[in-house]
From TrEMBL:
The keyword Hydrolase is assigned to this record: no
This protein's name: Histidine kinase/HSP90-like ATPase domain-containing protein
Lineage, top ranks: Bacteria, Bacillati, Actinomycetota, Actinomycetes, Streptosporangiales
Keyword Kinase attached: yes
Molecular function in Gene Ontology: protein serine/threonine kinase activity
A Pfam family reported for this protein in Swiss-Prot or TrEMBL: HATPase_c_2
Histidine kinase/HSP90-like ATPase domain ranges (all copies): 14-124
Length: 130
C-alpha cells in the first residue's frame, strides 16, 4: 500500500471538519467512493473524540489514507478507551446518537479495529469503482 497522506489533529469537535477537508483534498476527483470515505472518516473521528481519551484535554486523533491495488484504506487512531471497542449497535428509532459504526458498516467494503499500545485504530476499506 502507498500512504497518500496522514494528519494528527487535536481531539476537539472542529477537527471533524478538518478531517473531512483533509480527505477531500487527498482525493479531489470526487465520486461515490470519496463521499463514502469522507462520511466514514467523519464518523470515526467523531467517535474517537466522543468515546475515547482523544476527547480529553491534550487528546489527539491520527488519520491515515493509503491506496492499495483497487482500494483505499482509511485508518483513524485514537488515544484509547478503557475496555471499549468499536461495534455496530442498534441505536433505536428515537436515539439521537449511536449510529456511527452502523454507518461505517454500511459504507465500507470491510472494516475492523486493532490495538496499537494504548491506542485503538479503526480501519475501513473502500473499493475503487471505475
Amino acid at each position: 500500500m502507498t500512504v497518500l497522506g496522514a494528519i494528527t489533529l487535536p481531539g476537539v469537535e472542529r477537527s471533524v471538519g478538518s478531517a473531512r477537508r483533509f480527505l477531500r483534498d487527498l482525493l479531489p476527483e470526487g465520486g461515490d467512493v470519496l463521499d463514502d470515505l469522507v462520511t466514514v472518516g467523519s464518523e470515526t473521528v467523531c467517535n474517537a473524540i466522543t468515546h475515547t481519551a482523544s476527547g480529553r484535554e491534550g487528546g489527539l486523533v491520527t488519520i491515515v489514507l493509503a491506496a492499495g491495488d483497487g482500494f483505499y484504506r482509511l485508518e483513524v487512531a485514537d488515544d484509547g478507551a478503557r475496555g471499549a471497542r468499536p461495534r455496530v449497535r442498534d441505536a433505536g428509532a428515537g436515539a439521537e446518537s449511536g449510529r456511527g459504526m452502523r454507518i461505517v458498516d454500511a459504507l465500507a467494503g470491510a472494516w475492523g479495529y486493532r490495538a496499537d499500545g494504548a491506542r485503538t485504530i479503526v480501519w475501513a476499506e473502500f473499493s475503487v469503482r471505475g
